[in-house]
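Human: We require from you a protein record containing the residue sequence and its fold in token form, and nothing else.

Assistant:
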Amino acid sequence: MSLTGKKILVVGGSSGMGLATALMAQKAGAEVVLSSRSEARLAAARARFPAPVETLAADAADEDQVRALFARAGPLDHVVVTAAVVNRKPLAEITLKEAHQAFETKFWSQFNVARLGAPFIRPGGSITLFSGISSQRGFASLVVASAINGAVDALCRSLAMALAPVRVNAVSPGFVDTDGHRDAAREKVLAEVAAKLPLHRVGAPDDLARAVLFLMESPYATGSVVVVDGGHLAG
């Protein structure tokens, strides 16, 4: 399956892995639509593309805004959802409100986009979600994120049944170096992780974008959770 002439909506496409996916998809011949909550970030992202892209601001956790998003963007061939706000506070410090907000911005956003977007996807199309390897390996510093990622993995498999013949898959990243999560503490963690990995580096957004394109172009892939972690789970 080629992406040439296909229309792809990337929710959370203004930065990081979403932006990398959108750039790679356009290079592969797709028509790309970007969505995120911030008009300013969408404008900055739009300047990164060699060809025109449509940008639509929407909060993926808001039902009315998502319905309006698909009414404007559809029909579509593929939808990718990377929208998330990660809270890495220690368990003793994170509040219940903050934990709820983390679920809202990652799990419920993906649930919302998938269920409301499926009717706008053409035959042969797909939805790609994003979870993370903390769904499969415990991290003391990622208790809430682990629970969210485990929920996304389960959501992927059940949506593949509930929304068929629309294909639903998920990408499960390991540690990825993105501009949005860069600070001194994060740099230290990434360096420590890289030293322990078989490839001696953490992931880059393009590494995950390649996995998304593989899933979009694979007509027999559905209900799959593809791990791209540089060998973290193997160690």
The longest strand covers residues 121-130. The domain at 7-228 is CATH 3.40.50.720 (Rossmann fold). The two ends are 34 Å apart (CA to CA).
